[in-house]
Amino acid sequence: MSIKKTFNFNNKTAEIFSLMNEIISYIKDNIPALSTKDRLIPYQHVLVELLTNAVKHAGADSSLFSIEITEKEVTIVKTDNGNSFYLNKCGSFPLHVSFEGQQVEIRKDALYCLYGIIDSAHSLVFKVVEYPLYFKEEVASLYEHYGLLILIKSSNHVSYRIDPITGLNHFIVTMII
User: Fold this and answer.
1) CA-to-CA separations, 30 to 66, 71, 76, in angstroms, rounded
2) CA-to-CA distance for 112 and 103, rounded, in angstroms?
3) N- to C-terminal Cα distance for the chain?
4) Is there a contact between 108 and 129 (Cβ–Cβ < 8 Å)?
5) Going by C-beta distance under 8 Å and a sequence separation of 6 or more, which residues neighbour residue 166?
6) pLDDT at 145
7) What pTM was estimated for this model as a whole?
8) Whole-angstrom Cα distance, residue 43 to residue 134?
9) Angle separating helix axes 146-154 and 37-56, nearest 10 degrees
10) CA 164 to CA 146: how far, in whole Å?
11) What is the DSSP letter of 19?
12) How much is the pLDDT for 144?
């Protein structure tokens, strides 16, 4: 069994908290196992980051949040018609097919290295490599792409896809219940 609901967001900072609470209530109402605050924290992290991304980076007037719940997982998709994801080494999506299969470094600091693995000219999957705590290099600014780290650390799978026909951007986050 699968249930799905969509939520509209007008990409305004003042509405992040209320929409996050509305979506969390929806998840909580449909998954009794997630009724405790501690179990909902990763969902809150993911939602706040996706909502913040919509405000700060999308460059669109609004975003659509689609929540799909199955017996085993919750999938959250943020869709907008704004700016496509940009990879320093490869540029904006859609990418040239020669990049397919490559693992591209997005951000590196003393704690993590964030990679995008290019699935196709229209999609990539995010991956993070953590460095051991004894890594001695000075910590650089954590602000750039730190939100992607939050998404990856709070979920089971994070990917990005741009629809080649509509030009819509999709950030897809999957969380095992």
Assistant:
1) 15, 10, 14
2) 15
3) 14
4) no
5) 81
6) 67
7) 0.88
8) 30
9) 150
10) 27
11) H
12) 54
Q: What is the pLDDT of residue 44?
A: 95
Q: Is 65 helix (H, G, I), strand (E, B) or coil?
A: strand
Q: What 8-state DSSP symbol labels residue 10?
A: -
Type of residue at 9? F
The length of the chain, given as a count of residues: 177
Helix (H, G, I), strand (E, B) or coil at 35: coil
From residue 63, alpha-carbon distances to 54, 141, 157 in Å are 7, 28, 21
Instruction: Profile the chain (177 residues) by mean pLDDT over runs of 10 residues.
Output: 96 95 95 84 95 89 97 96 88 89 88 91 93 55 68 94 95 95
Q: Distance of CA 42 to CAs 37, 56, 150, 152, Å?
A: 10, 21, 9, 10
